[in-house]
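The material for today's practical consists of a large collection of protein records. Getting from the letters to the tokens is the skill we practise here. To make this concrete, we reproduce a full record directly below:
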Amino acid sequence: MASSALYFADRAEAGKRLAEALVGYAGRTDVLVLALPRGGVPVAYEVARTLAVPMDLWLVRKLGVPGQEELAMGAIAGKDTRVLNRDIINVLNIDKTTIEAVIVKEQAELERRNRLYRQGRPSPDIEGKTIIIIDDGLATGATMRAAIASLRQAGAARIIAAVPVGAASTCGKVEQDADELVCLYTPEPFYGVGQWYDDFSQTSDESVLALLESAVKSQGGAATKPEKAV
């Protein structure tokens, strides 16, 4: 992973450049690109389109520290997977009741997004597949690590975590969780993911739905399996 202070114009450009680093997976029938909504979706869309492989979503929610919601004390995925950042929890002396209250709130949002984004479509078929899980960057890495843990539980054969930019220390942790990490830049000092994009405006629900619909149409629904979404 090289260090650089280069900027990306936006998430779409970052996705195109990330796809260049993932070209070895192009056209493979066992590969599925999964995006972490919402910011990871425009990145993943360009990767999947360039590599000519299916794309879908993998829903994860960050557990923000109350009053400092951008600071992740952990993340959840599905109904059973949670990853907690014990360093932050201990330093800020966050009690178990507070953590559980945030989990309940974010689980409700996770379920809302699942209903909204899937529009009745089933969940992606993970078992036995090579998964490229994508976000727009790695700061604390909580959501990515929760995603990797839940993908393991779902039976993924191999997991590649792929991001345009990330904090070096976080990338080191994610690299231990995934089978492979692809990160284009690990600038120091890092500051935050948004610092490395000229346009880091929030990705809307409408954008997520439009990109997912386009991906599903192009792949003919190949990423899904005929069972109820969870």
